[in-house]
Structures are given as structure tokens and as C-alpha cells.
Amino acid sequence: LDEHKKIKSLSKGNKQKVAIIQAFMHEPKVLILDEPSSGLDPILQNEFYHLLAEVKHRGGTVFFSSHVLSEVQKVCDRVAVIKDGELVSIETISELRNKNIFRIELTYSGKGPTENDFGKDNIENFETSANNLIRFTYKGEINSLLAILNQFDLTNLTISEPSIEDIFLAYYN
């Protein structure tokens, strides 16, 4: 950074760097950050995550607001979900992951499952595409899911852990 330039003349990324330097330079015990890595390149984002880890290691607290859910997953111990201005949930990342939410991808031959086969409260983001491919997020017991799928001639089935984004969307839908 050119120390003689006025902040208002800096690029978004450089303004963000100055703000981060200001936030961390006095080794605060509490930080409140809103979209703090916006405008940073991947190398600087990584360095920023190390700075957050140092605050945590010193016993500090960071309130971190971000719409980049992979970033939340990377840096946060606990997550608060706010919907329509109301606090819906405060949980650890591992508690969120244990919500019986699964990302499903399957292919079938013959007649395939439809949204109605799973119950409308149990699925989100049901997508069908060519080659008898179906993708969706399932909320519920895995044994119930397998019992439903057992009625169809599946040629491939992938059940994966949902991303934080899948879990977040399950709260909002």
C-alpha cells in the first residue's frame, strides 16, 4: 500500500486491507466483522484466516458475518442462523452437520422417484436432468430414505454429507 494515498482513492481490496489492519492492530479481545474477506485475493484470505485463528488462540471472540458459507465453515466454531430478523438457531458446525440432512444424487432405469415419493417436508432442491439423473437434499432418517429408494431400480446412488450451504438453505425453505 502507498501510505501517502488517501483511503478513498484505494481499490476495494486495498480498503479492505486497511480495515483489517485497523481491526487487528491493537490485539482486540472482541472483533465484530461483516463480510471481512470480501475483496481479498485467495492468498490474503488465507492470511486473514490465520489472523482470526490467532485471536481465537489468545482467547478472543470474533463475531463474523458472511454469506460465503464455505468461509463460515472454515473459520467458525458456532453458527447463528437468522431468518426474517429472528434468531432461528445457534449451533456448532458439527451439530449442524448432524441434522439428518443429506445430499442425494441418483440415476435409475425404468420409472424413477418423484418429489411426491419422499413427502414435501423431506426434500429440497429436487432437480431432474437428462440420463435419468436426479439430485436433491433430503431431510430425515436415512433408513426411511433407503426404504423409499428401494422401490426403484437405481443404477447409481451417492449419499453425501451436505455442505453448510445445503443446511442453511434447509432452514430458509
From TrEMBL:
Keywords: ATP-binding, Hydrolase, Nucleotide-binding, Transport
GO molecular function: ATP binding; ATP hydrolysis activity
Key word Hydrolase present: yes
E.C. code: 3.6.3.-
One Pfam family matching this protein: AAA_21
Enzyme class, UniProt record, top EC level: hydrolase
Top-rank taxon, per record: Bacteria
InterPro entries: ABC_transporter_ATP-binding, ATPase_AAA_core, P-loop_NTPase
Domain (ATPase AAA-type core) ranges: 9-67
Assigned protein family: Belongs to the ABC transporter superfamily.
Name of this protein: Fluoroquinolones export ATP-binding protein
Organism: candidate division WS6 bacterium OLB21
